[in-house]
Amino acid sequence: MNVLLVDDEAELVSTLAERLTLRGIDACWATSCEEALRCLETTAFDIAVLDVKMPKVDGLELKKCLQEKSPGMKFIFVTGHGSTQDFETGVSEVGRDYYLVKPLNIETLIAKLKEALQR
Amino acid sequence: MRFWSAFKPAFWDHEDVAAGPYKHLFNFRRMWKASVALIAAVALAPLVFMTVIDYQVSQKAIESDIVYQTARLVSNTRRSVSFFLSERKSALNFIDKDNTYEMLSNPLRLTALLDNLKKGFGGFTDLGVIDHTGLQHGYVGPYNLAGVNYSDQEWFKHLVRSGAYVSEVFLGQRQQPHLILAVRHELPGGNFYVLRATIDTQQFNALLAEVEVSGHGDIFLTNREGALQTPSRLFGSGLGQIPLEMPPFSEKTQVMDTHVQAEPIVVGYAFIQETPFVLITIKKKTELMRAWNKTRERLISFLLISITAIVLVILSVATFLVNQIFEADHKRVMTLHQVEYANKMASLGRLSAGVAHEINNPLAIINEKAGLIKDLFTLQRTYAEDPKLNGLVDSILYSVERCARITKRLLNFARHMDVRPQRLDVGEVIHEVLGFLGKEAEFRSITLSVEADPDLPPIVSDRGRLQEIFLNLINNAFAALSDGGRLAIFLRCTEGRFICVTVSDTGCGISPADLKRIFEPFFSTKAGRGGTGLGLSITYGLVQEIGGRIEVVSKLGEGTTFSVFLPLELQPDKDDGQHERIAGG
């Protein structure tokens, strides 16, 4: 499983990538849309974990960009707003994608990654 | 007091503590008093003024009528009395002119003349002829008066001076009241003789007795000193003094008000010229005014009934209008309060959301860093056997999880103000709320218990509002509880499509008087202790917004129980499946 992690918080996303790597999951990380697209040029990802709220290009727009380049890619969204209700406005645009609330539980994240890939 | 309590308007005891320096503008009791006073003055003043004027005009008209009628009676009677005496005086003058002194000195002629006078006029008792020396040498009548000399008597002297004489009434030798008429006849050579007649007063009295006097009145003659000359209904039939001060001489008929034996009377009088008589009529004023008194009673009754009706209408209208203003103001205050509250909550919500979001990101970093350390310890087995390091990392992770729960709650309370129905478990909502207050309960040794029916169904409602309702109720219970108290929450199904949540405390309780006003805005029993008086009014509004109702039962010193009835369905939940899916994700 190849995972792309995108969040404007570099400290967060780099640590998360390292933790996934420790668990045998290949993970790359990026802090912006441009970096994410550059990663996509070199690596084919099965799934991307995107932060919803990011400066310039947010998670929902980034998903569209990534889907154009890699149509089969799955997505999981992460939000700092901590409640399902805050994410309701984005639901229709992200279809049946999962989302998770910060701070993340690593085991929950891995479980959702597997679930998403099996769909 | 009970009667007053039943009819006391709602605004009577109202005091707008929130009005500040404009408090006087919201003094409804003063507004009511001013309205009543102003309308009463405008409505009653013309009525009272017109009634008083009418009263005075009517009274003066009646008094004038009494004076006029009395004066007319006295004048007419005076003319009758004057005519009676003049008629007889003229008869004597005629006899005097028609007969010579020698003829009158003849007893037979004198007797014939007396008989003619008795038949023609009546009332004559005797007839005498007196020469200029005062000696009566011709006399016919029932007494032996021939040869009597009157030269030293006052009446004779007066007759000599004035030419005619009418005496006062006196009893004489027979003890019968009578009066004397005398006329002087001049003779050639400067001498004179006098023709004198005695008049019986029976005809005189009958003349006055026939006069009808209204108002239980009386009419009689007196001399100028006040001695009765004719019988009086009020003062008897003798020749005694009447108990009235004699009025001053007047040529015209006069009427005056006075009192006799403390009773008001109207006195009409007239001095009969060329006689010693004063004609007096007396009428009782109370009798004369009886008709006026009835009119006056009707007038006053009409005035009192009118005033009562007007005052009742004024009181009702003023109360109604001020009450309308009061209710409008009450609604204005409620609306302002709700707007203010909504703004406050919106600001609070934005602040909470911002804080929670900002905290969540660094919290996530701490979480990941600590997680990585834990991973390194666990996966690489370098420090896997070091319990202290593993414990420290677990402690960091536990604290992060606690912080995350707090930020989640903050965000949940910062929901939008619109009603957002969703399927939820009320017990879960209550546990969330208690999560906020758990530390305080622990610190104050308050026992918390939540019991729910096992088959309690989920309801469709607004989570934010439910949280706020229960937070307010539980906060109130905490305020009422002393340390070591008990707070019990029960959730049960009720008849119909409702579930009931009761929040019972063992606190100080609420008095029956306060219990009636407990849901009013700004009503607080915690004045001076930080109470705003808004909590329960907001709770009441929120319960209504989600289609429920709230009831309260309390007993002073024993505790209070609030019961919140929540409908199972707020409205059909179209996004039901989606919510479930998201909740699962």
Could you please describe the fold and organization of this structure?
The complex is a heterodimer of chains A (119) and B (585). Chain A is an alpha/beta fold and 119 residues long. Chain A contains 5 helices and 5 strands; from the N terminus they run βαβαβαβαβα. In chain A, strands 2-1-3-4-5 form a 5-stranded parallel beta sheet, with helices on both faces. Chain A is globular, with a radius of gyration of 13 Å. Chain B is rod-shaped and about 190 Å long. In chain B, a hairpin with a 3-residue loop joins β15 and β16. Chain B has 585 residues and is α+β, with helices and mostly antiparallel strands. Chain B has a 5-stranded antiparallel beta sheet, with helices on both faces. Chain B is 51% helix and 19% strand. The C terminus of chain B is likely disordered. Chain B contains 14 helices and 16 strands. In chain B, 26% of the residues are buried. Chains A and B meet through α1 and β5 of A and α8, α9 and α14 of B.
Instruction: Please count the helical segments of chain A.
Output: 5
Determine the mean pLDDT of chain B: 83
Are there runs of chain B of 5+ residues with pLDDT below 50, and where?
Answer: 571-585
Oligomer class: heterodimer
SSE map:
The complex is a heterodimer of chains A (119) and B (585).
Chain A (H helix, E strand, L loop, with lengths): L1 E5 L3 H13 L3 E5 L2 H10 L4 E5 L7 H11 L4 E6 L8 H7 L3 E4 L4 H13 L1
Parallel strand pairs in A: 1-2, 1-3, 3-4, 4-5
Helix pairs in contact in A: 2-3
Chain B lengths: L1 H6 L20 H71 L2 H5 L1 H14 L3 E8 L4 E5 L13 H9 L1 E3 L11 E9 L5 E9 L1 H8 L8 E6 L30 E7 L2 E9 L5 E8 H4 L1 H91 L6 H27 L7 E4 L1 H18 L3 E6 L6 E4 H18 L5 E9 L3 E8 L6 H5 L18 H11 L3 E7 L3 E9 L8 H9 L1
Parallel strand pairs in B: 11-13
Antiparallel strand pairs in B: 1-2, 1-5, 3-4, 4-5, 6-9, 7-8, 8-9, 10-12, 13-14, 14-16, 15-16
Helix pairs in contact in B: 2-8, 8-9, 10-11, 11-13
